Amino acid sequence: MLKEISLGLAVALLIFAAAAGYNILPLVMLSLLGGTLYFIAYNKGMITNFTGTEKTSSHKINFDDIGGQATAIKELRECLDFIKNEDKVKKLGIRPLKGILLTGPPGTGKTLLAKAAANYTDGVFLSCSGSEFVEMYAGVGAQRVRKLFSSAKEKAKKQGKKNSIIFIDEVEILGAKRGKNFSHMEYDQTLNELLVQMDGLKVDDSVRLLVMAATNRADMLDDALLRPGRFDRQVKVELPDRQGRYEILKIHTRNKPLADDVDLNMVAKETFGFSGAHLESLTNEAAILAMRENCSKIHYQHLQEAIDKVIMGEKLDRRPSREELFRVAVHETGHALASEMVSPGSVSTLTVTPRGGALGYMRQHNEEDSYLYTREHLENQIAVMLAGALAEELVLGNRSTGSANDFEKAFETAEKIIKSGLSDLGIVSWDSLPQEKKYKEIKNILNHQEKRVMEYLQKKKKVIEETAGRLMEKEKVTGEEFRTIVQKIIA
After folding, report:
1. How confident is the model at residue 382 (pLDDT cuts 50, 70, 90)?
2. Catalytic one of 172, 247, 332, 340
3. Mean pLDDT, range 353-376, rounded to an integer
4. Which of 35, 263, 342, 437 meets the CB 3.0–4.6 Å disulfide criterion with 380?
């Protein structure tokens, strides 16, 4: 209303000045220029009503809806109890936490945890991304931070709630270490304002504010942001272990009809390194595959196919020549034999179906997830990596460029052995070690494994030929089928 009145008065003054004989052209030009600048500034975000996005849903997310993060949920609940139990906090003189930082790889459920936290505390939940605060105009980011904090309090009061949670995703964009953007001080001003606003949060505020943030690059954050009194707690949201993956799969298959042959424990076993987002995508892809085949239920084969798709991508239309296909079959069989040599029962699937950037692959599963490795384990990994090229050399008489990625990974694993102090060199400083010595030790490790694998493959040449022939016919061989071939030929 005020804008309309002001505009009307301005027009009336211009008309009065023109009637009195004044030259109003400069005033008109100035008004047009001001209007144009206002329009540009409004659209670019200098003048903004930025308040963050309030998340509301008919289905509120609880901690029970999040699987595979028992440790993170336990730690988070403890932090949130400071907000819920206001009387106990005051009696014991506890300062409620101002900020909680969720760190971990992408897709592990950091945003879901923040939403569940808002529901747990019965508070308003405002969500935004770090990139929304940074503009090319000075002062915009700082203004948006102020507006976000005031909005969180206002919305809580309107809804009659005592708690409000502000969630900032990708906080490393907003909170990166100061002094690195010399050509653009807007980043630093925005971070300074966030620090000031967090310092202003008090125990006896009518609305208790908690700032939650998520990042997978905690190393980029400014030290002032991480000190006690701002982000007091860091909750690590890691990739789920086998039991965690099983729990996540159960959650994502609650609304999906599963056939009797589906064993979610086996699926969890074969998805080491998958995040919650990967597992959700896996179950969704399995359902799509079942629909394509007009199946009323999702079978285990659909989940197996979905694992391959999530790891490698969609099947490719291109078809290698028969000669190339046989080479790929021999190569993957070599990997499989070495895998069974170092860990019996570890082969899950062999295929020569082109996917993504690969013409074929061999997928393994492990009995237990491992996070610490011995020299023997790392050398076994190298043996499996080299086995594809060695099988080609044994059966076809030469190697191909298809082994380039295997060699690169084998080289990196050999480096890891040296860096960890597990090589014959003992404990060394990798940076101080002469290049010639590094290369010599890496070659010794690789040559030893080459010799070991070649000796083993020579005894299993018939298995390679038999399995490669089966792959030429069927394109895919399961781990059980492969082990049957091995035992039949040995017998």
Report:
1. very high
2. 332
3. 77
4. 342
